[in-house]
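Narrative of activities, Objective 1.

The group set out to show that a structural description can be obtained from nothing but a protein's sequence at a throughput compatible with the screening campaign. Below is one input-output pair from the validation batch, recorded exactly as produced.
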Amino acid sequence: VQLQASGGGLVQAGGSLRLSCAAAGINISNVVIGWYRQAPGKQRELVASISTFDARVESAVKGRFTISRDNAENTVYLQMNSLKPDDTGVYYCNTPMGVANSHWGPGTLVTVSS
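Output recorded for this entry:
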């Protein structure tokens, strides 16, 4: 199983980014995929997740972030709008099994300037 996060970059506060999580070795329509982030000096946290029948975002990003998937592309997206400096961090995508096994990819860095 491979999950490759991409799409990060430097953006001004109030701006938008769309992150992509390209999957290989699994069918994303059949599993839970989560987007996580780790800010400097802080613990990694879940920001959004999507399963076969449900999509959720955590309260800290609700109303600003949206998670979606394209089954044909086997890719999960995280649309991030109205970005704030507190959204700065490395963003990762992962499955529950990957989280349980502490198997993380390199992630993609999002930097929001004030």
